[in-house]
Amino acid sequence: MQTSDFKKGIAIRYNGDTYIIIGYEFVNPGKGAAFTRAKIKNVKSLKVNEVTFKSGENIEEGNMEYKKCQYLYNDGSNYNFMDNVSYEQFEMPLDAIGEQGKYLMDGGEVTAVFVDNAPVSIQLPPKMEFDVTEAPPGEKGDTATGGTKQVTIQTGAKVAAPLFIKEGDRIRVNTETGEYVERVAR
Fold first, then answer.
1. DSSP string, 130-161
2. CA distance 183 to 151
3. Which fold has domain 3-61?
4. Distances (CA, A) of 171 to 106, 129, 148
5. Among 3.40.50.2300, 3.30.450.20, 2.40.50.140, 2.130.10.10, what is the CATH number of 127-184?
6. What is the pTM of this model?
7. Plot region of 46 (φ>0 → left; ψ -120 to 50 → alpha; else → beta)
């Protein structure tokens, strides 16, 4: 694979270890050769490094596998999942899941990413629906400015939503940015 094939979330082999690309940027300076700057996370140590690759450099691809899984529970130090095909249970540390953990619902389906037969991260659907469990009342006159307020969804996460959203509404949230998308009819 070449640096032009980089995508967020894919595995690469670098200096004898396997890493997940968590971000990258193509840079074409006025002088000198173009390069790709990548943030990569070590699969075993979870340390993040910033590495510069020459443009067109060949990088070995890591052995990745995607499995549909069901989220079971959080035991305080790990998230626990079950493979939908083999029914095997496995866990991932809290920091491997990161910010995505606030969108996990008991029994919800996710895609687990396995690198070298070990679970390393999850992929959520880009947009998910949640019930609003807490919403402060909108003040009269606030709606003219198109303001927002912090509402709490069923997982406990806070989302900035329009003032007309109230407790009991169902909303769609972008799980990549954490932003409100729309209210969903029941």
1. EEEEE-PPPPTTGGGGT-EEEEEETTS-EEEE
2. 13
3. SH3 type barrels. (2.30.30)
4. 18, 6, 14
5. 2.40.50.140
6. 0.71
7. left
Place of tokens 């094939």: 5
Using DSSP's 3-state secondary structure scheme, residue 15 falls into coil
| Distance in angstroms (rounded) separating the CA atoms of residues 58 and 11 | 14
pLDDT-based confidence at residue 131 (cuts at 50, 70, 90): very high
| Spatial CA neighbour of 185 closest among 164, 173, 170 | 170
Let me know how long the chain is: 186
CA–CA dist 3, 40 (Å, integer) = 13
How is domain 64-123 classified at the architecture level of CATH? Answer: Beta Barrel (2.40)
What confidence tens digit (pLDDT) does each residue in 41-94 have? 888 777 889 999 888 888 888 888 889 999 999 998 899 999 999 999 999 988
Is there a shared CATH topology between the 3-61 domain and the 64-123 domain? Answer: no
